[in-house]
Amino acid sequence: MSARVSERDGGGRDRAGRGGRLLVVTAVAAERDAVSAGLASASSAMVGATVIAGGVGPAAAAAATATELTLAAAAGEPYTLVVSAGIGGGFAPAAPVGSLAVAETIVAADLGAQTPDGFVPVADLGFGVSEHRTPGRLGRTLADAVGASYGPVLTVSTVTGSAERAAELTARHPGAVAEAMEGFGVAEAAAAAGVPVAEVRAISNAVGPRDRAAWRIGEALAALTTAFGKLPAALEVGPEHD
Ligand SMILES: O=C(O)c1cccc(C(=O)CC[C@H]2O[C@@H](n3cnc4c(=O)[nH]cnc43)[C@H](O)[C@@H]2O)c1
Prior knowledge:
Blueprint: E1 5-9, E2 22-26, H1 29-41, E3 49-53, H2 58-74, E4 81-90, E5 100-108, E6 112-115, E7 118-121, E8 131-133, H3 138-146, E9 149-155, H4 163-172, E10 178-180, H5 183-193, E11 197-206, H6 217-235
Parallel strand pairs: 1-3, 2-3, 2-4, 4-11, 5-9, 9-10
Antiparallel strand pairs: 4-10, 5-8, 5-11, 6-7
Helix pairs in contact: 1-6, 2-5, 3-6
The protein binds ligand LNDFFVEH.
The ligand O=C(O)c1cccc(C(=O)CC[C@H]2O[C@@H](n3cnc4c(=O)[nH]cnc43)[C@H](O)[C@@H]2O)c1 binds near residues 56, 180, 182 and 212.
């Protein structure tokens, strides 16, 4: 049985995925469609999944995720897992263009304060948390299933555009495999709802000096589709129930 997938943007609401317990949040429609194509091609039995395009950046992602989780819970059909997914920048050498990255931790890499002594994360300032961890072995399991690099995935509000900034980020977050702009927003909403979270990124560009011509978005979207074709079996989610 193939996955049943509901697709929509952050504004609309339909009930096509009402058997689903998996929520996938992408930033834009092209990512949503790539994820949906992968889920629909999955060979193993799976619950229907809902895939939404919630917008670019952590604020839009958090708002869209929180709305979706709240509506589902109010309807008595709460999600059991939220996955932030899309394209992202890869840190060398762990995550080359065209590869996949799965988050061990989802890190708010630029949420905090700049001081004369350097960056202070928001958690160290005494406000909330600076990262969310994918529970148990879920992240490792997903990474192994799709052949992804596994480590911290950074959420930034500004795409890294210089070697200096890339070096600063890796110094602060050793082992970081990727950066993107939505994961921490999705994770904050998931945490507020008490739902586990994961992040899957397909690498479209290297984190470093800005070189827009070198971005391989089509290649990354194809990798995203391949990954989500393998995800249902890895998640071992139960059969769909209408
Ligand atoms: O710099 C540009 O010219 C440019 C052109 C098209 C798109 C962008 C984006 O910033 C897209 C952001 C979007 O894609 C994710 N993403 C992909 N690569 C990265 C990255 O290296 N660092 C951060 N985010 C990235 C991100 O999650 C957004 O959804 C720029």
